[in-house]
Amino acid sequence: MKRYLICLLSFFYVSFGYSQTELVSCFSNSYTNTDGPVFVNEGNNLDISLCTSIQFTAEWDTDGNDWAGSGNLESQDQCPIGGPTCNDLPGTNPPTSSCFDCWDYMYFEMSIDGSSIGISDLVGEDIFEDLSGTWDSGEICTDGSNNLDLNIVIQNWGATETFNLTCLTVTCWDPQPSATATPDPVCSG
Q1: Do 83 and 98 touch, CB atoms closer than 8 A?
Q2: Bridge-partner residues for 140, per DSSP?
Q3: pLDDT mean values, one per 10 residues, the chain (189 residues)
Q4: Which residue, 69, 70, 130, is CA-closest to 105?
Q5: Whole-model pTM?
Q6: CA 147 to CA 96: how far, in whole Å?
Q7: Alpha helices in 2-131 (DSSP H)
Q8: How does pLDDT run across 73-128, given as a tens digit for each residue?
Q9: Among 145, 146, 140, 144, which residue's Cα sits nearest to residue 170?
Q10: 3-state SS class at 76
Q11: DSSP H helical segments within 32-92, as ranges?
Q12: What is the pLDDT of residue 181?
């Protein structure tokens, strides 16, 4: 009887599990002296119509550059040096004069079917920013959506200023049988 129950539970788990597909698989790149905003195309216009849920993860770092002081990364609150405040939004192209040749940042925002879903991060707002971090959206139910855009913009102005984007991955869970995938939350589909 015990063996019968174990077999039955294993069958149920395999039959109703979810499979994982990587829509973007560990994309990595370094961005040095971009001289204006660079729009990262990996993660744009991804077909998520077969996904019941998705997850975006990436690691980033400043290649050891600090934010405070001179001769390194300049945060938005440092620009322009000795002038009016830089008030650009990430991706403003070309940057306004108060941000030009000054503000260094990394920004991402997730959009599904053309609408922001409220998951974003801006690195470079003030001198207290971290030098490295991880972006992780957690698993997001797609609810029959069709398109995912990761709007990633990177800007820096110096030959020694670098942002590294490491292992950007977008995972799709679809309703195909699998004995290993366990999405949380469990989404319809």
Answers
A1: yes
A2: 54
A3: 45 53 93 94 93 95 85 87 82 90 94 94 90 94 94 93 94 69 58
A4: 130
A5: 0.81
A6: 32
A7: 2-15
A8: 999 988 887 667 888 999 999 898 889 999 999 999 999 999 999 999 999 998 88
A9: 140
A10: helix
A11: none
A12: 53
